[in-house]
Design goal:
This protein is mostly helical. The chain is about 45% helix and about 0% strand. It has helices at about 1-10, 25-30, 35-40, 60-65, 70-75, 100-115, 130-135. The longest helix has 16 residues, at about 100-115.
């Protein structure tokens, strides 16, 4: 809930506060696919590379959960796709779907060929699919 996050920050909560596992508000926003919270928390650049107890950055979580639009926004804000978690995995190795993998590959190719220029991803429009939810059988 974006209002709750903003209210807590207004009341003095620190933006990089985390639970006992090192999970920050940005990690939770990425897990939930809460783009409004992710956008709001991205202003705190140090959170983009923050790792939890397992070495996962918000980008690791977003790619695992198949949150393509969140992945695109994180990359555009400066999140590194090269950080390895405690098991030595980079985010691309955890992709839940092809669209998310294509976004990371597009970003990496762009930065190899045209570093310093803005990157966009042509499939970053629309609300995005809830990859995990769409795979559940009820």
């Amino acid at each position: 809930n974006l209002s709750a996050v903003r209210w807590l920050l207004h009341l003095g909560a620190h933006q990089d506060a985390c639970d006992a596992n090192g999970t920050s508000c940005l990690h939770v926003g990425c897990r939930a696919g809460a783009l409004a919270i992710v956008k709001d928390m991205m202003q705190y650049k140090e959170l983009l590379q923050a790792t939890d107890a397992a070495g996962w950055t918000p980008l690791h979580i977003a790619v695992l959960m198949g949150r393509r639009e969140v992945v695109v926004r994180l990359l555009q804000a400066g999140a590194s796709p090269h950080v390895r978690n405690a098991k030595g995995q980079v985010p691309a190795e955890l992709c839940a779907d092809n669209g998310t993998y294509e976004a990371i590959r597009s970003y990496e190719i762009h930065h190899q060929q045209a570093a310093g220029t803005p990157w966009t991803f042509s499939k970053d429009t629309g609300p995005g699919e809830d990859i995990i939810g769409s795979r559940l059988q009820y």
